[in-house]
Batch of 2 targets.
Target 1
Amino acid sequence: MNLSTRLRALGQAAQKAAPVLATLTTVDKNHALLLIASELIHATKELLSANLQDLAQATHHGVAPAMIDRLRLSQESIEAMAESVRVAAGLPDPVGRVLTSWTREDGLEFQKISIPIGVIGIIYESRPNVTSDAAILSLKAGNATILRGGSEAFHSNQAIAACLERALLKAGLPAAAIQLVQTTDREAVRILCEMDEYIDCMIPRGGKGLIQMVKTHARMPVIKHDDGICAAFVDASADLTMAEKILLNAKCQRPSACNAIETVLLDEHVAPAFLDRVGKALLEAGVTLYLDAASMKILPQRLKKSFPSQLQEAREEDFRREFLALSVAIKVVSSLEEAITHIASHGSHHSDLIITENKHHAEKFLHAVDSAAVYWNASTRFTDGGEFGFGAEIGISTNKLHARGPMGLEELTTYKYLIRGEGQTRR
Amino acid sequence: MNLSTRLRALGQAAQKAAPVLATLTTVDKNHALLLIASELIHATKELLSANLQDLAQATHHGVAPAMIDRLRLSQESIEAMAESVRVAAGLPDPVGRVLTSWTREDGLEFQKISIPIGVIGIIYESRPNVTSDAAILSLKAGNATILRGGSEAFHSNQAIAACLERALLKAGLPAAAIQLVQTTDREAVRILCEMDEYIDCMIPRGGKGLIQMVKTHARMPVIKHDDGICAAFVDASADLTMAEKILLNAKCQRPSACNAIETVLLDEHVAPAFLDRVGKALLEAGVTLYLDAASMKILPQRLKKSFPSQLQEAREEDFRREFLALSVAIKVVSSLEEAITHIASHGSHHSDLIITENKHHAEKFLHAVDSAAVYWNASTRFTDGGEFGFGAEIGISTNKLHARGPMGLEELTTYKYLIRGEGQTRR
């Protein structure tokens, strides 16, 4: 059987499972989730040994240590995976909510209710825990899921998927509720993208290459999870104590996160005081500053002498970079408007921030910046399903439609209208 | 300048106009809309003469009379176009609604607000009034619009677009708020589909070929408006007086509409009585019946004798047909479950209907059928933005994500989160 035929069989099975999953009770779904959590814990040994195979292969291929770290499973990370499943079981069921309802004058009753999307394809890279995390949220929302993980985590993903399958069978749910594509062939991604007769929505999570490939080939709606080029604008009236606290958090707490700050725009009036104080704090925290000509000129000589290896001249392209590291690009701007324009043309519409004591500037920024989350005087690191209070997240959508920003259980549903009548006809 | 360069210039201009449109006041938008209405009325002569060119060309090319009818403008249709614009001016502004809001324990305030999508591409066929109807709804929702009409309405569309442009300039709005692609080259559609750096969302309205082309090539989200293969299931306990009334309305009122019924599924217990009575009524209304073997066998001899030219043997593919005409495919099923399964595998997830006095059957059908609108004892013809109470519609979405079913002003917006703090950082 060739790859295309095999993948289409997966699609057909998922499509067949979808209506069964859509009508499951909350109790049934939660029961299955708790069984999944047990299976993961019971299979700790198998999971670790499968993971060792992936780690050995990655080391053999000279994969970067940071990547190997993301690939690694441990007893703790397996327990965390199981705990995520239990948390999902405890969350409210997103299916069957009455979103709105109304009655026409002729008595026709309209009800808009939330329903599962149907079949969701998830294409991801690296971290094997996504196999479980993504699949269980999708299941809780009543969807069938087809997973395509990265080749570097092939054995780990297979071992996790085997746990899920065992639990589904024990729970009496269709095994096709969660299916893992069992190949490392990249062609599989292209074929899945063309299966719009089976897959209702594709969620790619990963690097630019993967996202671009899915966007180009997909015939179904795509909810992409890609880069965060997040900017902070420090306004003339900013409280620098607050700016220091927020920026250290937003840049240094987890530099590899998509909601970390990559660009700092400085109002020209605040630039000298900012660089003297917050610039110093960032340098002391180990951050490399990519400075535009104006900010390089302003930077105090003593800092230039103390941190020579952490100072770089910023090129234009550094303001479109997702450093994913302890680096930040800094630019002096002459006004709030220039900051807004810079963010529109250089940012990725993910999370952006204004630090100011000027309420009018804050409101102007909040409304003018077209990003999923726009902040006033708070860290962009809050862009996260857990921090938003969603209980769990499948990721941070960089789409503008359907789901924008943190994507939780509700965003894994869609809606339909139920209309109840007594023989009404249209005039 | 080649086609790609010209289209990209359009995209750039739209992208530049989008933030201006996003921050317009409701008063400004409504003022512009009322100017558009006036321009359309003042330009009646020019519009009619441009339309005559299209009609002459269509006649010369032997286009079908039904198509020519859809292409034709008249003083009345121009007045109706202007009236639609005035209605849009009177509707509530869909931008800036607070969709939800909450405050965290640490005082961080979250607000989810509606905002315009940005730049919307609309690719459509035939009816020139879509040029105005679609563009003005998109404008009211604060979006920039790029229109690509069918070549058969080329001159009419240009004349309407010229009215819109004059009104935008008078209103002091960017001319790029509404732009018409000035070419009949089909290649333009493919190029637009690849312009995801400028166009946030593509809305294709038209035949299967057009939808397929957009789905295949588009790199941005697509909200498609395609076929309605709507089914009515007549349950064993159906009230046949009601069934007759509803089906005559749903099939005959406007057979060319996507919300007209194309398939009738009959519970085997009701089939004889139904065919005797409602079958007769449909035949008398001029409807051609495509009957499966079981229903052909049951159909009373007298009807076979009286309406020989309106009876056909149904082939399997007739149950996947959008007749768009006074024809309907009829099939006998043994249960509610068989009806639900038939609709899942043959329908287009648009609008489906159960006629029954059995509340349990009704609720099972309402919840199990995965269509944008699911009806109990009412005509599917109600699937329409106006009938839903949306005030206006850009069409009926057959997407599952973002907008499903009638798509009004609210569906032309998306959202973002505004987060207001006092220096909060993430733990």
Target 2
Amino acid sequence: MKNTFGNSITITLFGESHGEQIGAVLDGVPSGILVDIDYIKNQLSKRRPFGCISTGRVEKDEFSIVSGVFNGYTTGTPICLLIPNSNTSSKDYDQLKYLPRPSHADYTANIKYNGFQDYRGGGHFSGRITAALVAVGAILQRALEEKGIYVASHISLLRGIKDKSIDGLDDLVSVNCKAFPVIDDDVAVQMQKEIENAGEQGDSVGGVLETVVLGLPAGIGEPWFDSLESLISHAMFSIPGIKGVEFGAGFSFANGYGSQMNDAFVLEGDQVRTKTNNNGGINGGISNGMPIVFRSVVKPTPSIYKEQQTVNLNTMQEQVLEIKGRHDPAIIHRARAVVNALTAITIADALAVKFGTDFLNKING
Amino acid sequence: MKNTFGNSITITLFGESHGEQIGAVLDGVPSGILVDIDYIKNQLSKRRPFGCISTGRVEKDEFSIVSGVFNGYTTGTPICLLIPNSNTSSKDYDQLKYLPRPSHADYTANIKYNGFQDYRGGGHFSGRITAALVAVGAILQRALEEKGIYVASHISLLRGIKDKSIDGLDDLVSVNCKAFPVIDDDVAVQMQKEIENAGEQGDSVGGVLETVVLGLPAGIGEPWFDSLESLISHAMFSIPGIKGVEFGAGFSFANGYGSQMNDAFVLEGDQVRTKTNNNGGINGGISNGMPIVFRSVVKPTPSIYKEQQTVNLNTMQEQVLEIKGRHDPAIIHRARAVVNALTAITIADALAVKFGTDFLNKING
Amino acid sequence: MKNTFGNSITITLFGESHGEQIGAVLDGVPSGILVDIDYIKNQLSKRRPFGCISTGRVEKDEFSIVSGVFNGYTTGTPICLLIPNSNTSSKDYDQLKYLPRPSHADYTANIKYNGFQDYRGGGHFSGRITAALVAVGAILQRALEEKGIYVASHISLLRGIKDKSIDGLDDLVSVNCKAFPVIDDDVAVQMQKEIENAGEQGDSVGGVLETVVLGLPAGIGEPWFDSLESLISHAMFSIPGIKGVEFGAGFSFANGYGSQMNDAFVLEGDQVRTKTNNNGGINGGISNGMPIVFRSVVKPTPSIYKEQQTVNLNTMQEQVLEIKGRHDPAIIHRARAVVNALTAITIADALAVKFGTDFLNKING
Amino acid sequence: MKNTFGNSITITLFGESHGEQIGAVLDGVPSGILVDIDYIKNQLSKRRPFGCISTGRVEKDEFSIVSGVFNGYTTGTPICLLIPNSNTSSKDYDQLKYLPRPSHADYTANIKYNGFQDYRGGGHFSGRITAALVAVGAILQRALEEKGIYVASHISLLRGIKDKSIDGLDDLVSVNCKAFPVIDDDVAVQMQKEIENAGEQGDSVGGVLETVVLGLPAGIGEPWFDSLESLISHAMFSIPGIKGVEFGAGFSFANGYGSQMNDAFVLEGDQVRTKTNNNGGINGGISNGMPIVFRSVVKPTPSIYKEQQTVNLNTMQEQVLEIKGRHDPAIIHRARAVVNALTAITIADALAVKFGTDFLNKING
């Protein structure tokens, strides 16, 4: 359903990069959830440009919540959160009206919207829009944490450099506190150096984000067609730049034998667990009580300063394009906040489908 | 929405492996589409057990269409297709009631449905259910082909053995005719040998299916949240055993620079095309007129004959499990038909959202 | 979403009057509900032609449930219920291919489906399809009754003849047991006479069904856009022949003053109740704990034996039409079963949205 | 789906009467529609308090469109329209926290949202919210008019006083221009007098709005479950105060014979039309090319100045309530704008489902 996602809890996004305001409507949220403004700001800060590896547009992300919150708590009616756009420099983009940037949505938007799209800064396709998503998602993220359900993502791979895995709640909390989401600090330094190098060359890099959800009860998800993998991937593939999603062992399933990859059931006290977690916490589309583990690949930021070939849609001639404006050599560290927020929304929705509006009071004790 | 998927065209699946009948309801299909029974049978034949690498249950897949088709054409009202279950041997499964098979849905179904699930043969989670999907999907698959939109999948990777890529319509048509969907015949022999070896050891293998859609016009899909990647992945992750989906360059985006991975725009005659297709035909969630390319990883069949560890849910003791019954050492070649059918349904739905009920008359000339 | 209705619990209908089978898929039903075949048969019997006021096609309504039920209980996966068509006499309808019957769907179906519709006996528009709805709805109807939520409908008005109102559970149970759903037996005799008279003249009559739901807890429904009135009316207006729906005082609100029509709050023990129930148990779209009361008007059966004027769509000439075949002079008494079943499904869905999959265990003690 | 309505074109509403802002998101709108600010203002002016029969809160309704419009035209991405709340006097409502007003949503909101609702001025249940609906709906209303599809509503009944019917486009245009929507000017005077009288007594009145849609092509709507009646009634019953909806002859179907009520088909030139329009332009849930005619009953404004009985939810004692604040003795003339806007949205959505995103270019020549 286009710009709305979810069954019981729904998120609607609107806004353009250089429009007046961007925003989100989060509907179906239980009443009585504490809305912690500092928590929201903290999540937004993780999405903002970072140090010398993000040299771009500095957004203040001053948000306001104009509905659905009363006396600091959610009312149960739709929450609309707005973020005004400022610090926009639209003239940077004037040349792009007819010169679609390779691997951006400029060309497809032009076809789909028949030339009426707001082309400035990528319009509705801009990563800018994700700020509103991070902000409203934080409301649910915090509520889930209060119930022992934690979401975290780290950069598990970037140009061949690998981070170690998230191992338990301590790692998760620790990586959630870091501005650059990598567990191993030495690896973090290497990755940042790689990003800086790319930036110096006017180039860009991508990477893989690994997301872990701890504390999700077993029994969430559906066989057809709302498997937990379906819901999560549907959400993730909406985020600009994500081109692959895998759960548990993911693509390495292609090389192993069943006898190696199957997750044997074991007892931990009186709890049924699996010895390994190659299925990423999901069997038959339904959570099995183990950590949910998935990885999303983020492509290199398509905005680079190097010369590229494109087609002038006005003259219908091939033309060389040099992108101006402010662009990051990598967005993967910023995408972390978006992935976490959208994962929290998706998980909360799946819980609400099963447990109803009052799901927070019905889970985890 | 649980067992229904799609916006304008919807598919609903029902049935259990050892129940009376399985079936599907396909709704929103344009009126006046020819229903070619032989075409449907042909697709079903690709899903059936194959040669010595599929030693399992032989299903006749005799289907009947009980609604929505009149005088050989679709009426525009819901199409219900039924396949009776026969040749079921439920006693094979009696022990499984309390002994969940590792990496199967037995355990999660038991939690979710509170012990009321039909546990025989995996019940609603069985790959058996996909037969109805293949059959109704074939109706749209054929209709799309008439309009120049073709879907095909081949095994691109299996235990390190790689097939070459689908290169154009000839390869696509050729692989669609093969019982074992591999382009390079030598590679096919190696892969089959690998599967046979696994089977002889009572083990199983998985692999990667690469799917190509040719002829899809540019402009299909949405930025948020119904990107073409979101819709396709939502569909694919419903298929039992699929644990990863990537588009275009997919996870290898993590290693390249933007300058290497961006798809430059070029002119082919008066057509805007891209020089490379690392984005798999999709920019900003919207088709760009290039071939849609995605890969889905299928995990090794979890049913193996080797001893495995599980937990007896009755006694709550760990126990060794030996699976009986008839099981394939690989299902990836059979999954091909399911992936194609579900891709066709998803693509047709996205076209119907854009072009309306009468979409077939509005595309490709 | 076309032929599927509902949020958490969904119903999909398929089939044509003279097709092979009609049926329904009910999805999202909790696992562990007893499926009482006799209860279902009983509901179906109320939909069947009745005595001398229904001289039409006698259907056996032999149904089979082919999925979603195991050992007599729902499994939690989709329930598909099938009813084979028999006793069809398609030749009665041959003339209707180009001669649309006034006030039937023949003409609009022809436009919508471009001539490909199954025109025999009204095809997918036939009241016949409602048999499957009644049968699957009965599963939920019974489950709700076990939790103290009762649905009943009676004919409150027919050609100026009025029945008295349902006053409490005794009336409700009593009218649910009657073959002709009227509380006052004298009124029932008069109404039946009116129907017989119309039948003897080759004519038909309509009437008003009043539906009462007892035991629904307060707090069910949404302000925008899924008010309880919205959901119920959406459902009711799908039933062929229903042309008006009103809640509580309904259209008589147009004549009273606020001071007369407002429902004052009072205490009954420690329960908040309203003194009157002009709002039919719903304030602001949400149930208030009082009985839900609504009325649906059923138009006179459009199939009459008198000569009527139509347009021959083949010759595009006006033409006199004489309808043949078997038709009831009234369907309102049979529609009762359909209204009850669909109300039960709608109420169950609204409960499941609020309380989750396991709603039956969370309501009414 | 809660606060979102529609299939292809969706509307989401947010905001509370005394919150910061109210607003709407309209999604799925075709790109390239002219956004005429004066037209929107004109529709809003019809919703505003009127003369001496509306003595209430004067709202400026200064709206801003913050997304989805670029250079005066829709972009095809979600349109967010905001209206700031001003002139609120929340202290008027303080007593209402525990004293639910009869026939308002105060009590049900308190149950549903567990005391966390914004109770000031009815919060999310306030008629105030409809201002945003009127404003965004106007965008589609104007676009439909350009294609010859017109929507208008008039007060057909108010305390026994009847207006004549809308007879053709001239009447429709004329009533759309009037501040008090009644065709017969003498009737208008009588109705206004009736409203003033009620107001002087501290009381209120309701009435019936009759809505006509001209120019809708045949073939729009679905048999199950998205009949045109289902979609329209679903929308109408979301509007606060509407308690009944009937199509064509509506509840008077209960008194006529089939032979009197059936709409005979006739030819007008080469157009198939019906002689009468008792079915209100809809057969089998699908438009037949005749004017769509429906009536909605609006209950008397529940806010009256007379003493009423309620229950103090804090002390759980019965208590007399005297409502303060500013309230209209009738809202039906203002509701007209809401009904028209929501009808336009619903009709546009149904057209988009059939004809696709580009529906405006595919209808009516």
